[in-house]
Amino acid sequence: MKKILVANRGEIALRIMKSAKKMGIKTVAVYSEIDRHTPHVLFADEAIEIGPAPSAQSYLVIDKIIDAAKKTGAEGIHPGYGFLSENSEFAKAVTDAGIIFIGPNVHAIEVMGSKLAAKEAVKAYDIPMVPGIDEAIEDVEEAKKIAIEIGFPILIKASAGGGGKGMRIVEHIDELSEQMERAISEAESAFGDGSVFIEKYVTSPRHIELQVLADAHGNVVHLFERECSIQRRHQKVVEEAPSSVLTPQLREEMGAAAVRVAQACNYEGAGTVEFLLDDQLNFYFLEMNTRLQVEHPVTELISGVDLVEQQIRIARGEKLSFTQSDLNIEGHAMELRVYAEDPMNNFLPSIGTLHTYRRPEGDNIRVDDGYEEGMTIPIYYDPMIAKLITYGSTREESIDIMKRAIAEYKIEGIETTLDFGAFVFRHEDFISGKFDTHFVKKNFSAESVEESQHSQRKVAAIFAVKQYIKSKSKLKSIEHNSSIWTKSRNQ
Ligand code: MV4
């Protein structure tokens, strides 16, 4: 492959093009009318406009993207995340056009796109699953029987679901019928597929995911875990690698299970296997995401592997150049997603112009973004404007660098989740590692941020006073010394 098209925008389009450029591969950007002057377009060797701002008329139109690839002679298409990245029709259309899809095969996308098909596929692979059923259920009486067997609370899930849509917790048998109807109709309208199933509800889990890489020659490795429990309404905000609760043995077990999940669907490329981890450290397979994830940088920093480069190499048919035993964890990485949202106002989208936009700089700080000062954040797309990633030799160090980096990040003109991040990285439950997926709901409110800011200011004020006193006493001693010196000279 000498030229690839990136079917995406923003930070991830830029991120992908950087690896391509490093590998000597030319890049083609596609862009909507309002994205004409954005960094991913300026960075690319060529760029093709694909329609009006709404993604349904641009970034989601399969034919326009394939036409752009044909027109520019791109031999591969990287879908990034979101948009068409997990659309098996897109992967098929790309392949049918004689272009390489830089991602998994159509079969793997289809199987993992359905939670029930995924359960079926991994059945013979000895993967721990949450107690529950692996078939769609329609009959309420049958559902009640199953729920009693499993024991309450139970969770009704949509097979086609994602982002918590169509998911219903049922605490008591009397609520089951109503909740099941709701789950089915929600799934029907959101995904056009009303299939639901039942699982035991794991009440306070952590969300741990394993990164895998699989080549086209049957080699599969994992690149350890990412801890993604700090989320708000299924939107991740802080991720880290490694997790502070996995023992080397548990990591090996979860890694081996993730590899088997990849094998179960003949996976090729970079993928992520999601698990729930309960308070007894039991893990359960949830689903597999067949794309490069937003939070992939934390894995890159602790493993030293460029995941986009590996995706491209695998798509070219190369064998993995390393085995599992070549891989190890070095250091600790943190990621904060910087959203154009106002945490003090229920995370409402904060639209506007980046009047000031200055990134933090320095060793062990990485900023993946797709905006520059003066740009306006469009309302049409994902509100994430940047990822702030830090690295340290220990978890404590990565947190310290993160706190400094947040303070140095200057964004004016819109509200962002930077202050929210400052709150998380100072919270004792986060620092001690004692948290689960309920962290934000449990600890966060606008008042708690104000409190945290207040105590931060207090610390800063005390520090300033101390510095002042110190400098004054130094000054005094200098004055003192110099006065002696002047005196002596004068004598
Ligand atoms: C669960 C669960 C508890 N028990 N399944 C949420 C989205 C989807 N990917 C799976 N999800 C969950 N499945 C059982 N049996 C709790 C969640 C869940 C969750 C999972 C990962 C990260 C954040 C979450 C927030 C709320 C609920």
Description of the structure:
It is a single chain. Helix content is 40%, strand content 23%. It contains 16 helices and 22 strands. It is globular and about 80 Å long. Strands 13-12-9-10-11-14-21-19 form an eight-stranded antiparallel sheet, sandwiched between helices. It has a five-stranded parallel sheet with strand order 3-2-1-4-5, sandwiched between helices. Strands 7-6-8 form a three-stranded antiparallel sheet, with helices on one face. The protein has helices at residues 10-22, 39-43, 62-72, 88-96, 106-112, 115-122, 140-150, 173-191, 248-264, 296-303, 307-315, 395-408, 418-426, 428-432, 439-443, 446-490; strands spanning 3-6, 26-31, 46-49, 76-78, 100-101, 154-158, 168-170, 196-200, 206-214, 220-232, 235-241, 269-277, 283-289, 332-339, 341-342, 348-349, 352-353, 356-358, 365-369, 376-377, 384-392, 410-412. Helix 12 packs antiparallel against helix 13 and helix 13 crosses helix 16. The protein is α+β, with helices and mostly antiparallel strands and 491 residues long. 45% of the residues are buried. The chain starts with a strand and ends with a helix. The protein folds into four domains: 3-102, Rossmann fold, CATH 3.40.50; 131-200, ATP-grasp fold, A domain (Dna Ligase, domain 1); 206-447, ATP-grasp fold, B domain (D-amino Acid Aminotransferase, Chain A, domain 1, 2-Layer Sandwich), CATH 3.30.470; 459-490. Strand 15 (341-342) and strand 16 form a beta hairpin. Bound molecules: ligand MV4. The site of ligand MV4 has 15 residues, from strand 8 and strand 13.
